[in-house]
Amino acid sequence: MGDTKRADFYDGPAHDYLRYWDGRDYEHAAERIALERLLTGEHFAHAVDVGGGYGRLSVLLHRYADRVTLAEPSRRQLDIAADVHPELETVQAQAADLPFADGSVDLVTMIRVMHHLPDPTAELAEIARVLDPVGAAVVEVANLGHFRNRLRHLGRGIPSEPVDIRSPENRHDDEIPFVNHNLDTVTRQLNDAGLRVERVLSVSNFRSATLKRVVPHRVLVRMEEMAQVWLASLRFGPSIFLLLRKR
Q1: pTM to 2 decimals?
Q2: Number of folded domains in the chain?
Q3: Residue 62 CA to its chain's centroid (Å)
Q4: What's an example GO BP annotation here (predicted)?
Q5: Residue 115, domain CATH
Q6: Which of 6, 32, 228, 240 could form a disulfide with 1 if both were Cys (CB 3.0 to 4.6 A apart)?
Q7: What does 65-99 look like in DSSP terms, one character per residue?
Q8: DSSP SS3 for 146
């Protein structure tokens, strides 16, 4: 999350991000599967989870890195992390201003942050700056071109610019943005930042209240596990995970 307004949103009492994940076991499992698939066989000295909230996925990085730092702008989320994941190192930091030296981090993850960034240019450049030349980054993108949206835009094409998905009554300057991105646009932004896409996964492919209600969790997760690679070339899901390297 890239500015004070976004940090304040997650500091406020109206937003309980820990409780937000109640009932989202499928989405959490889908994201764990994607991270594990992209990182299996890798090992890193220092991993930094940018904008990782209370460390929901940061703790998974201990399997792949000797040292894990949660870099999060919200003081409240860091306090929760200290309670529920005391093994994590934490630092209060904006995604566009990370307190790490150039090339000093060999794994950077940024999950569920891009949807708060209508213009992620500064954040992507910062990832490239701190990333070791032979390191890796995993960035998740809220996918504007997911299957259902392609049906809605049939004959018109997917907009190239980010689209704010908030309802009109919630679109105020003092409210946090929620945007979906065109993946072609993001790929160009990554290239401009000096990052190249090495692998793509389609994630949360069966994100549906109806499916979660009628399909047993373990079956839905198994379906997700099988679909992430198969549906990647179709950019099917609402969430796309990108494994990145420096160009």
Answers
A1: 0.92
A2: 1
A3: 18
A4: methylation
A5: 3.40.50.150
A6: 6
A7: EEEEEEEES-HHHHHHHHHH-TTSEEEE-BTTB-S
A8: coil
